[in-house]
Design a protein that fits this description.
mainly alpha; two-stranded parallel sheet; 15 helices; 61% helix; disordered C terminus; binds zinc ion
Length: 365
């Protein structure tokens, strides 16, 4: 493991405001918990059931190609819904009260093709602790083809990233499942190695679950249905493309746009702001809010609440956000919210902005 000092956040007096918000939020959650528990449990059972039903439908009625492809498209949609509502909560230990139950539930992610062990580290220990900090936020750090951080390593190909990246986005999950997970395990220069040494057993699980996933998603339908390999692969691609596009709308909008900062630690590894203010300046909420975003999309639009309270389940975020808004207004702190379309336009702007090195001298230094 590389010996590196983690960035340290400043103490700037804003901690007092955060303490007050925390008190109000935890009191509110205690009050609402009994009536919301049913919704939390209902989702935990319903959504995986829909995924399995879609898969069984594909196997049972897939002779009709339109049924087969539609079922895989639905599985792609369910993959994202399960990820947002259930896996994401389970890695934060908020899906169930018992920790072991959360840890067990996370294996659904492996069954759907992603490695849960590495994502939990990427997400909870890196992205949540250091959002938008280059070299530490591994959720933002994606393929070397994308230069999302303004201070990121520049190569000539980035000049065209605003053109080719949107075209590559449908392959986002294909890269995640079949390339990125393996890179994190085998390339010790990857960010995850700054905080963990991967145990051997995880390598075994990585291969076993990936093989199991590819077997049931591609090979088994080929064995039981009168379809060609090309058709089996097409269905797999339909699932991945659908999931990639929906997942990216949600993942890009709260962080990776021009309205957010991408601060770097100084030479002594100190961050300019406190952890609390860092979240307010590097995360934004999304305006779209309705029954669909709350029930199916895991309240992704309330992302500031999630960053300040990752240990609180998303069913409480509408009320938690009201508290954050009130306290931010009365203490002159930012609370930023944009329409989804604006965040996507600003993401495109960010890609365009970062297609050139900020300072031409930095490139050669
Ligand atoms: Zn999270």
């Amino acid at each position: 493991m590389e010996k590196l000092t983690k960035p340290v956040f400043a103490k700037d007096g804003s901690e007092e405001v955060f303490r007050r918000i925390k008190q109000r939020v935890y009191a509110l959650v205690r009050e609402l918990e009994p009536e919301r528990r049913l919704e939390i449990t209902l989702k935990a059972i319903l959504f995986p059931l829909l995924y399995v039903t879609a898969y069984c439908t594909a196997l049972a009625y897939g002779r009709d190609k339109s049924v087969y492809y539609t079922a895989y498209c639905i599985m792609g949609i369910m993959l994202v819904i399960i990820f947002l509502n259930l896996i994401h909560e389970a890695v934060h230990n908020t899906l169930f009260k018992r920790k072991w139950l959360n840890e067990l539930y996370i294996y659904f992610f492996d069954l759907m093709g992603a490695n849960s062990y590495i994502w939990k580290i990427r997400h909870t220990r890196l992205h949540h602790n250091y959002p938008n900090v280059m070299g530490w936020d591994s959720d933002i750090e994606q393929s070397p083809l994308a230069r999302v951080f303004p201070h990121g390593k520049f190569s000539r190909v980035h000049r065209y990233q605003h053109i080719y990246l949107p075209l590559l986005y449908p392959f986002f999950l294909l890269n995640w499942l079949l390339v990125r997970d393996f890179k994190d395990y085998f390339n010790k220069k990857k960010v995850v190695w700054k905080v963990v040494r991967i145990p051997r057993i995880e390598y075994v699980k990585l291969f076993l679950f990936k093989l199991l996933f590819l077997f049931y998603i591609i090979v088994l339908p080929k064995l039981v249905l009168p379809i060609t390999w090309l058709e089996a692969l097409t269905a797999f691609c339909i699932m991945i493309f659908t999931a990639s596009i929906i997942a990216l709308l949600v993942l890009i909008s709260p962080h990776a746009n021009t309205e957010n900062e991408f601060p770097l630690p100084d030479a002594d590894n100190r961050m300019e702001k406190s952890w609390f203010l860092h979240q307010l300046y590097n995360t934004n909420d999304v305006k779209e809010d309705n029954w669909f975003t709350r029930f199916f999309m895991g309240c992704f639009n309330y992302h500031i609440a999630h960053h300040l309270f990752p240990n609180v389940h998303h069913v409480f975020y509408p009320e938690v956000t009201r508290i954050i808004q009130e306290e931010a207004a009365s203490h002159n702190l930012p609370y930023r919210i944009y329409p989804l379309l604006t965040t996507l336009k600003n993401h495109y702007k960010l890609l365009k902005q970062n297609r050139m090195p900020e300072n031409i001298f930095e490139e050669t230094m």
